Amino acid sequence: MAVQLEAFEVPGARTYFGHALPYGLQVKSSGPTGLVPPVVESAAALRALGDSGKLQDLLDKHGAVLVRGAGNASAETFSKLVGAAEKGRGSYPHVQIGLAGKRTPLADNVWTANEGSPSTRFYQHNEKAPKGEFIPILRGGATPIASSANVFEKVQAEIPELVEEISKRGLGMKMVFRAPGNEAKVNQFNWAGEHSFGQELTPEDDEATTKQKVEKQVRKLTSDFKWNEDGSLELTQHIPGIRRLPASGRPVWFNGLVGRHGITRDIGALDPPHIGRDGMTYLPSVYGDDTEIPRRLLDKLIDVIDKEEISLILEEGDLLLVDNFQVSHGREPWEGDRQILVSMWDTPISIGEY
């Protein structure tokens, strides 16, 4: 059964800089109509797309590629498909450090998306890895994405003060990791998690050894951290906040600022002691010099970016390849049965300085 990838228009797609976001590819086979092709054949087609350089070209132009009809919706199928596509591009699995949320591994380099409460909205954000991460998404529901280059243009036009200050001072992204046994009510995680900072911990470690091993992992992300009296770990990652795309040179809004402020506002943690209704700690949004960013700017930022979201309705088994440099993503609240799986990959291509 021969497999081909045919372009199709994705409902709800928008055009930025002359290219649709996302670009659609429908898997077609020579077999009976309606029959899902064997996974091995779909994987081979995606591998060929990656090997040829065409997948990279599509991602450079469009930012995201939606592959439809490649296989049944399972973690194992997903792993084979995305692995073929990304290995063809020369990507390698992202090593997770500092995971601030609950995710469950289901297959090779495949995880559940953040398992926080389905009633919680996740605002637009880019992942924190310094290199490109590609986040394929599987199975049902509305998934909002946005063009980071377009968002930059809108923010620059409507909130120039914020762009100017971030370009000068950068951002300080603060996070508190609770101690083991003192996790929040929902979305439980702590600093000892295997994919947070507990990669090298063993049951025999004493307190001093435990802290030493945890700090070793933390320093891979930042040198700005401290232990609090309650045993929690507070850290600040200093990031530019605005970068440039390696292919086009366009400036992009590349951070999780609106995501951090949005959930902090929604959960009722803007004021001291910054404890949300879910029991988690949400520290204020600050510039890189630790100066708090005015709320009026952050509230305006939410309004600006909300208007730029593309709400995708994914079908079961869809594979959405997202260039994390170019496209941010979020999550809308939902009811009922919904599962999104993620697989994160790094590439040798680094994002540019602003």
UniProtKB/TrEMBL annotation:
Molecular function per GO: oxidoreductase activity
Domain of life per record: Eukaryota
Occurrences of domain TauD/TfdA-like (ranges): 52-345
Alphabetized UniProt keyword annotations: Oxidoreductase
Pfam families cross-referenced by the UniProt entry: TauD
Keyword Oxidoreductase part of the UniProt annotation: yes
InterPro entries in alphabetical order: AlphaKG_dependent_hydroxylases, TauD-like_sf, TauD/TfdA-like
Protein's name according to its UniProt entry: TauD/TfdA-like domain-containing protein
Native source species: Colletotrichum cuscutae
